[in-house]
Predict the structure of Polar amino acid ABC transporter, inner membrane subunit.
Amino acid sequence: MSLPSDFFGRIVFILQNYGPSFLKGAGKTMAIAIVGTLIGCIIGFAVGIIQTIPVQKSDNPVKRYLLKLVKFILNIYVEVFRGTPMMVQAMFIFYGSSVLFGINMSIVFAAYFIVSINTGAYMAETVRGGILSIDPGQTEGAKAIGMTHFQTMVNVIMPQALRNIMPQIGNNLIINIKDTCVLSVIGVVELFYATKGVAGAYYTYFEAFGITMIIYFILTFTCSRILRHWEKKMDGPDSYDLATTDTLAYTSGMVKFPDPKEKEDK
């Protein structure tokens, strides 16, 4: 079957013949982005909580220096993965793991691993900022009733910090959907890689990548709307009544104190 000469005819031709390739690539892209973001969030929460553990002079010297060493290593991890492109990380990890350690990663495992640790580095700073944004008095109050740092984080700080960092979690997901295209350098058959194959078959680069651009937009826009709806659910209703049985809460506007001037007139 010959390629149509008009633009929209070529678009229809590509979709009819290579539609499954686009769908398969989009599915792989979403799988890597979602799983990588979820694992990255777990890594980020763990690193962020460790980075906010206070170091006091009264602590055991071994514990104090060990904690400083762990924080130093985690800071190196965060700075390296935030300061280098994911494409370079993909090449270094996928090929370097074989050369340096003799580990032959599968392409699929490498894709999930690279996106996860890259996202974890960004999320670590996001979580740390979210934790520090909470009023320190709440941490002091939790410690005053005997909570450990871990209990304070889980039960008091993180539920509040989570709402503050939800937009950044959504932003990381959208970034990962787009940035999975760099994994094509190690042979991951995601949306961008599939599009290159389709475009090269008939040299229809403009039409093929036009379709891909629309698919990327649909994926990111849909995820953005879903996450925005989730944020509103976490906020609760816009208007609410304060439920209380304490009559003192209703004294405002109900009790009128006598005016001294009125007493003098009488």
